[in-house]
Amino acid sequence: MRKSGALVLQILLVIGFIGFCVAFMLWIQYRWFHPKPLKRVQVPELHKPVSLVLDSSGTGHIYAESENDLIIALGYYAASQRLWEMELMKRAAQGRLSEVFGTATLEFDFYFRNLLLDTLAERLYQNASPASREWCRRYAQGVNRYIIANRERLPVEFRLVQLQPRRWEPRDCFLIQRFVSWLVDTSWKEWSLIRQLHDTLPQQLQKELERIVRPTFLSPLHPGAAPVPKKWWDIDRKFRRWWWGIAYAPRGFAFVYPDTSRNPPPLSMLFLEPLGAPLPFRWLPVHLSGPTIEVAGLTVPGIPGIIVGGNRRIAWGTIHIPSQSTFFQKMPAVESQTESSVPFSMERVQQNIRVGNAVRSRTFFITPRGPTVNLDGGKPDANDTLSVLAWQGWQLSDEIAALRKLFQAQNWEEFQEALTTFQCPSS
């Protein structure tokens, strides 16, 4: 009797222990799926409460009851995670690094002032659709609300250089987009290297090179096409070394689609893999959920959209395709005739850069083809020939509209229609 009683007691203890473990696991799961807010933040720009949940992988899940609130929250969240990168990219694109880092970055500032990205961003913003401008305004509201609420709790990088982040303007979303597009656009390098290689090879090897590369790489893109100025090449290389010496350099992404020649074609599959080109930012993983939006993926800090990701029906990725969208061209320094016998004029632009208590100036000219290259600071006279940068990124387009349409694409036709608004190379 004693043995049987002890056995029953042991069984009851085991059952009780198992029951306790099950109850404990159920409690953990309940707390996991019904967590108490760790922090409540007052964001006056929001019309209704928004929830932000961080999972164990570091992905931010944003739930909002309206599209506008969703984009405001995305801007707030991006600033909370990547404010230093956003400020650094903005300063680089505007040519204002020397205000923080001194003469060490002066040539980088002149390099990007030469691209006139700040002027371009304003033109792009004014040309964008009302819906795209609204997205940029809402995103900027979220970024600025985070800056205002956290002046005393900024990332350590701001304290190290004694810098306060500047107000985020709606047009800065286009500024970051064009800045990233320029850095990943290597067409001018590829064209120049292939041309130089072709011209220095023996005739037999020239023919072999002609066989394996596209014919357009070996033909002038435009009458008057010129080699890349050596100083332009040198400064571009120095900037990349400097940038990725102080910032993490993640890799890009590509997508592979199935061979549609097979009958029947296989199921579509999206495959992402790292590319060789580093990016000037760290991807920010997010999931956005609202009445008309249900999308997840990777976003670029500073841009209100998901570059790599998908919704419930469509998934997308990015890849850089050499498009020969950039080249250099020689033009006279005075008003003259183009090859089509149409007169052109040049707009004079003076750029001033503050370095400590000093101001450094540089003069550029804007031609119908693009800005002139002036990295030496000299002033051309009437007999000089200017090197002009022709970049497709100077064309007016609305990539924010493309991102909005990708969010809501429900089939292949809508997906293709969204892609038609991507006009900038390497977008």
Structural overview:
The longest helix has 32 residues, at 2-33. The protein has 13 helices and 15 strands. It is 43% helix and 18% strand.
Structure keywords:
427 residues, alpha+beta, Penicillin Amidohydrolase, domain 1, three-stranded antiparallel sheet, 15 strands
Give the CA-CA distance, first to last residue.
81 Å
In CATH, what is the class? Mainly Alpha
Question: How would you classify the helix and strand content by structural class?
Answer: alpha+beta
Low-confidence stretches: 253-276, 336-343
Order of helices and strands: HEEHHHHHHHHHEHEEEEEEEEEEEEHH
CATH superfamily: Penicillin Amidohydrolase, domain 1
Count of beta strands: 15
Question: What count of structural domains?
Answer: 1
Strand residue percentage: 15-25%
Radius of gyration equals 27 Å
Number of alpha- plus pi-helical segments = 13
Mean model confidence by pLDDT: 79
Name given to the CATH architecture: Orthogonal Bundle
Largest sheet: 6 strands, mixed
Give the strand order of the largest sheet, numbering strands 1, 2, ... along the chain: 1-2-6-7-8-9
Tell me roughly what share of residues is in helical segments: 40-55%
